[in-house]
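Next up, a chain.

===
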Amino acid sequence: MRPRETAGRAFQDKGLRVLFALLAQPALVSSPYRSIAQSAGVAHGTVGIVMAELKRLGFVGDIGGRRRLLQGERLLRQWVDAYGRTLRPKLLLGNYRASDIGWWNEIDPSEADVVLSGEAAVARLSGVLVPQIITLYGNRAAANRMQIQHRMTPDAHGNVEILSRFWRFDQQPPELAPALLIYADLLATGDARCIEAAATLEEDLFARLK
């Protein structure tokens, strides 16, 4: 029996952080490794390892004397799949239940030191969804503060999830997670209405990678 093929560094924890920074900011790929490392929140050496692997896999190449992302749509889909399986579970700070989750639309997430993702982000952008799960990214202090302020109780099957923010670059609008992460979190639900909402984001995400 052949040994099972293991995933390369690019699709493991720190590599996924590097890929996220590159996919969310495609122009970043031509920047010095130090700048990429800063955006991804990883060590300089990690970027070198990941970039070498991306070149070997045909996802990065030199065109006109500059590094470019190649096969962007395929790379994005592979990242989304690996993120849901590998990195996302490690980022979870807590699941909670709030008796009334309507508060998410009344707060200023930037003041609360969190950003909205998934269903809540789409609802904030377009109002096409009534979110059943509120997904927030922040830090442990913000999670504790939100739990107290909104009287949330820990619940593995609750209607609020708070994850650790893992990127180190600004996004617009500042109260929302980058579009790629909103897309990935929508798909991670497995809910048909969320998958349909994710499909509305695809065209813009893929266009930015061409």
About this structure: The chain is about 50% helix and 15% strand. Residues 72-91 form the longest helix (20 residues). The CA atoms of residues 49 and 181 lie 23 Å apart. The two ends are 40 Å apart (CA to CA).
